[in-house]
Amino acid sequence: MNFAFTDEDLQLRQELREFLTTELTDEVKAELMAAREGHGTGDKAWAFLRQTVERGWSGVSWPVAYGGQGRSRVAQFIVEEEFWRAHAMVMGGGGTGAPAILASGTEEQKQQFIPGCIRQELSFCQGYSEPHCGTDLAGIRCRARREGARFVINGQKIYTTFAQASTHIFLLARTEPDSRRHAGLSVLLVPMDTPGITVRPLWTIQNEPRAPVSTTYGEPRTNEVFFDNVSVPDSCLLGAEGDGWAVAQRGLNLDRIAAFRYLISVMRDEDIVNLLKGGGPLAEALRDDPVVRDKVAELWTEAQVCRLMTMRSLSVAQREQEFSYEGAAEKVFAPEHGVRSTEAIAQMLGPYAQLLSDSPHAVGHGVFAHNLLGAFQSTVNHGSVQVMRDQIARKGLGMPRPAGGR
């Protein structure tokens, strides 16, 4: 396998870095953060986003027919990586819900949604988790009852990040009332301004004080979303009715290829290396400790494994092959590495690992301390590692379900 970047890839990366250095000013960052928090997008942020659209970076690998550039998934990966490193921005096509529409949507849905996502006019939050089934999606109770050519939705979702700022929700609901587990689920693309939808904030442990932008799961807010007789046309149905489990899993696998999925697990490895390279008594003491040096080398090696597993998934998608276990394996190794890395770095830093962003003595603006609060979440979000291990066993190794298992 050759995962080296071509000269064209490297030129794209250089172009991105020059653009972000010049155009992503502190004022733009502040307005982008305000938009993420649901306060609307300011003029400077819109001007910045329009430039990304004009340069083709907001849908770099999406089909030309829907407004994309039709470039490779490698190009998309590079765009995603540079924007995430610059300001934790999801850019390029991954992590938006739109890949699932490309994979499972009708032609009318693709024409309706994909150009708007590319123009940064539409955005999706993910309506999967519920209070009683955070990681067990097959236990969903939110119902969408068919009434002629419409669905009437009642229920609740929880931990719906960016619901306060998204135009649509990628909703997994039970459309067959007597069904159980994976059967009878459907995905609906629901506008967030539909009457009967209520969004209520859930402030996280990262809210006070605010976590640095690049913190693993450092969002200050997530949400509860309530549906009270929400009526939508059946044209909102993504894929076949009752086939929501397959549609949702396909979308999750495609989103896992996104560069930021692996970056949130390895950026602290880069941060601790940069810290050790810097000056000051703490950095000097740590880099002269052979135990610390050995552990950092071990973590760095694991981080490269995370990168290579992501590149393998990227290669599968690039060849338009079907995922079996690759995405699940990546989803187990990278988050668990992120937890191991976070714990090891905390031991290296000692008391400094507890100093959050509001402390004048915080290391790295408090990113290591805030990461302690958020890293473990990555083993649960977007599919728990326990569920992923089951997928690896059955799809990758051909093992049967356990006797009496679900």
Mean of all residue-level pLDDT scores: 88
If you consult CATH, what is the topology of the largest domain?
A: Butyryl-CoA Dehydrogenase, subunit A, domain 3
The Cα radius of gyration reads 21 Å
Helix-strand topology string:
HHHHHHEEEEEEEEHHHHHHH
Pick out the low-confidence regions: none
- End-to-end Cα distance, whole Å, is 37 Å
Task: Estimate percent helicity.
Answer: 40-55%
Task: Give the number of DSSP strands.
Answer: 8
Structure description:
The protein has 406 residues and is α+β, with helices and mostly antiparallel strands. The chain has 3 domains: 7-93, Acyl-CoA dehydrogenase/oxidase, N-terminal domain (Butyryl-Coa Dehydrogenase, subunit A, domain 1); 124-242, Beta Barrel (Butyryl-CoA Dehydrogenase, subunit A, domain 2); 256-396, Butyryl-CoA Dehydrogenase, subunit A, domain 3. It has 13 helices and 8 strands. It has a 4-stranded mixed β-sheet with strand order 1-4-5-8. Strands 2-3-7-6 form a 4-stranded antiparallel β-sheet, with no helix packed on it. Helix 5 crosses helix 7. The radius of gyration is 21 Å and the shape is globular. The mean pLDDT is 88.
At a glance:
Helix content is 46%, strand content 13%. The chain has 406 residues and is of the alpha+beta class.
Describe the secondary structure blueprint for this structure.
Elements: H1 7-23, H2 26-36, H3 43-54, H4 73-87, H5 98-104, H6 107-118, E1 124-127, E2 143-147, E3 150-158, E4 168-174, E5 185-191, E6 197-203, E7 221-233, E8 237-238, H7 244-255, H8 259-277, H9 281-287, H10 290-318, H11 326-349, H12 367-374, H13 385-396
Parallel strand pairs: 1-4
Antiparallel strand pairs: 2-3, 3-7, 4-5, 5-8, 6-7
